[in-house]
Design a protein that fits this description.
The chain has 18 helices and no strands. The longest helix has about 35 residues. About 40% of the residues are buried. Helices cover about 70% and strands about 0% of the residues. Helix 8 runs parallel beside helix 18.
Amino acid sequence: MSYIDLEYYFIIAAVVLIYYVLPRSVRWTALLAGSGLFYYKAAGDRRQIIVFVLSIVVSYTAANLISRKTNRRVRMILLWAGILLSSGPLLIVKGSELFLRTLGNGPGLIVPLGISFYTMQMTAYLSDVYFGKVAPQRNLLKYALFISFFPQIIQGPIPRYEQLGRQLYEGSQFDFDKIVRAIQLIIWGFFLKMMIADKAAIVVNAVFDHYKMYAGAYFLVAGVLYSIQLYADFLACTVLAKGGAGLFGIEIIDNFSHPYFSSSIQEFWRRWHMSLSSWLKDYIYIPLGGNRKGKLAKYFNLMVTFAVSGLWHGGSWKFVFWGLLHASYQIAGGLTLKYRDRLYEAAGLEKNSFSWKLYRTAGTFLWVMLAWIIFRAESLRAGLYMIKSIFTTFNPWILINGTLNNFMDYRQWEILGISILILFLVSLVQERIVIRDWISKQHITVRWGIYICAVLVIWLCGTYGFGFDAQAFIYGGF
């Protein structure tokens, strides 16, 4: 079951109805029941549920023990014991994947649904309890709801207890405007998934899965489309999660802030997967020392932090390489900053001018796209081969001679192009205003005209064929 599955919306509709019927003080029980039902239905193996429940109990127990002890050494031991035990399944899965695949064997382990996301959630919670940032939740069932809240359990964002906990437990008053705004998000999420991500996937899958049949510009097209596919797919996850939570009057944090508008790799990571970036900063980079101990220590801390990020994404050396590549980008960017500024000045590019920003943004996208090729390729060797071919094979004519229509017909390319343009224009406007607020101020005929037209377009033009798999959200696999 995924967030575009009809069964999911039957579950969420039933939970919404029960939620607003119950007294406000116990509405959290409806969310807990819905979360339990969703996880039960979505889990492919019932043993996943056992591992998930054990992790919840372990982290809950550790947090409450930490809060009751006064001896710092005992508290530290309890913290690390809680982190290691609750994150043990994730460490075993990622470590086994990494080393067994190095030996040419698959790990064949049970991987609980959403393990990468809820493990980081538990780790942050334990750390925050230890440092006194939050008081531990004494009610096991309420804590279980915080970890398992079903609109975001599979694909994030990664919430903090102080941001989400109170909203879950206090209950929300019924607000029709909030319901409508949540539906707006759900429609937008379907647009991103069906009109962009899954159409781009047709070309991306064909090229990356059969890369030996292609060369040069094919890889450039596939790399650009994968960059867009991944963003649209993961943004759809976040938007659908926010929409689902919004039906209960619950606000989930944003996970993206138009990352491809970034003019540096450092800015890209402030805009991309923001809940993960802030987690890595708060619980890996800063505890290592951050930038407080000189440049060499700062660069080392960056490498460690991004190596962890790579391993979190998958137990394969290509992911570790991808993480280290992004760390290297930032280190190189810091070391060459003054020289690049001189180069821009010599080229007549005035700092902060449109041209200066355009070139920096385009350059940032290029570096990010090349790293995404490594990320998507079947192996590190395959990814490096594809990148090399982009710069050594000259075949730009495939862009204009109709060859790309072998992947999908002209009508599908046209729909994909228009959809990407809509995403770009909407993103530009969102840098300045909240579009949902603007829509909400329009006359009812305009508002519902927009909603109905959007649903019809997605229904008629969205990708349901071409091997489309409604379960295949990309980040559901991490």
